[in-house]
Amino acid sequence: IWGSGSPMREFLFADDLADACYFLMDSYNEPTLINIGTGVDLTIKDLALLIKKTVGYEGNLVFDSTKPDGTPRKLMDVTKLHDLGWKHQINLEQGIKLAYEDFVEKHI
């Protein structure tokens, strides 16, 4: 895994993105921009551990500190979106599980 695992990232399930876009097209008509996201972030290391748990991987995770970490934190401010009444429905753990189950069903 590139870097130290310490950078923080935000993830959004594709179905939630589609739902947010539809919600905004249907209910928002202002010239200001609206960020779409969950407002929740976690470290790359925690993401890797979550994936490891979900897929049942029993090996070790190896972080390559010779590779760059990139931006320390990428998190959207979703205050406006939440104030309008939209929030994501699928948390990261559920999303990874759904994606993994779909992959297994279609490819294994």
Automatic annotation (TrEMBL):
InterPro entries: Epimerase_deHydtase, NAD(P)-bd_dom_sf. It comes from the Bacteria. Residues 1-37 form the NAD-dependent epimerase/dehydratase domain. GO terms for molecular function: GDP-L-fucose synthase activity. This is NAD-dependent epimerase/dehydratase family protein. It comes from Pedobacter duraquae.
